[in-house]
Amino acid sequence: MKTRNTGFVLAILLLGFVCAANGADDVLRLETVKKLYEQQKWEEVLRAARGPTDQSADFDYYAGMALSHLERWKEARDVFSAGAQKKPHDARFLTERAGTEYKLNDFRFAKKDLRRAMRLGVTSSIEILEHRRQAEAGGGRGHCAAQDGQDAA
User: Does an H or E element contain 35, and which?
Assistant: First the structure.
């Protein structure tokens, strides 16, 4: 009985160690993604940010932003949608997805996303831009519809 319990405890400890190691790997990977983003190395950002579907929404944000910089609008929209599902109260995903929808001439959905972002507390196109700048902390430009001088809401 004691041996069985010891094996169980070791298995739990090992699982905890593996989870902690994966968390540390994700922290390092996210730092790498952010550095590559600041350096505007879009393809490298994509490679570093791609991972399992249940990865942190922060990776989805940077992958979507890199895809936007590469003007791969449909892919960017899909990635921002995945991030929005993971973090439904994070306006970054809605505002950036609105930008991709704008570029795809899908104005109805762009307006819908910007309205949802406004319900989350973002109140103007200027605030949307400022929200993104703060989120990026100087890491480059996004492709929000409002950035083009258009008020899609």
Answer: helix 2-38
The CATH number of residue 9's host domain is 1.25.40.10
Q: 13 pLDDT exceeds 90?
A: no
For residue 29, the tally of other CB atoms under 10 A from its CB is 17
Closest of 88, 75, 89 to residue 143, by C-alpha: 75
pLDDT tens sequence across 67-118: 999 999 999 999 999 999 999 999 999 999 999 999 999 999 999 999 999 8
How far is CA 124 from each of CA 51, 114, 138, rounded to the nearest angstrom?
Answer: 33, 9, 20
Structural domain count, the chain: 1
> Of 90, 38, 40, which Cα lies nearest the Cα of 60?
90
For residue 130, give Cα distances in angstroms to 28, 76, 105, 125. 27, 21, 24, 9
Prediction pTM value: 0.70
Domain carrying residue 45:
2-148
Q: Classify residue 153: in a domain, yes or no.
A: no
The candidate with the shortest Cα–Cα distance to 59, out of 69, 51, 71, 68, is 51
